[in-house]
Amino acid sequence: MSKKQTAGEPKERILQAAVKLFARQGYGNTGLRELSKEAGVNLAMINYFFGSKKALLKEILDIFFTGYLQVASSELSGKDELTCKIRRFIHSSIAFFTTHRDYLLVTISELPHDDPEITEYKANWGKQMVDTMGVLLDSVTADSSIKKTIPPVIFCSTLMSMMASRFLFKPVMEQVQPGQLAEISDENYADIISTIFLHGFEEKIQIGTRGRK
Description:
There is one protein chain. By secondary structure, the protein is mainly alpha-helical. The chain has 2 domains: about 1-50, Arc Repressor Mutant, subunit A (Orthogonal Bundle); about 55-210, Tetracycline Repressor, domain 2. It is about 80% helix and about 0% strand. It has helices spanning about 5-25, 30-40, 45-50, 55-75, 80-100, 100-110, 115-140, 145-150, 150-170, 170-175, 185-200, 200-210. The longest helix has 23 residues, at about 5-25. It starts with a helix and ends with a helix.
């Protein structure tokens, strides 16, 4: 094993330990000593690789948003109809959220608005996503009302919130209706979100009603 590979191993352990602890108990409630114990390294290692706990949080945000933007850039491009692009994006985003669940939880739940540095950091990533969505909406010429009534910032934040709800509320909803969520696959969930987002809640209710008859 090379020196580079050897050095990279504890760095990855620190990162994964941070993702796990931040997602489960919060950034503010996770101390560096606890983090070093979880990662199996000493405190000096954390400082050597990342410099601070805040730098670790930024690293987690970078990994999540880089992947999410790659999904958006890939699935929202091309000459397909707008609805096809959005459905494709929703399916791929939910698949990405599933494989990066803890990264999603940290990104969504860690909103230290009293820390301007982190707020600005997340906002810079958000601007890139909004710009990507803006290009999508600007490409729509058949229905100009979409561009007028749905600002990209609303389009982007609303869709992400809908997609992320399965992962954010899962522990609670599993107790509200035990077994209900387990019966809904990621594919089915993506279909549900796509239909509600594109066609509205009433149509989804009608579809569900017809399916039960």
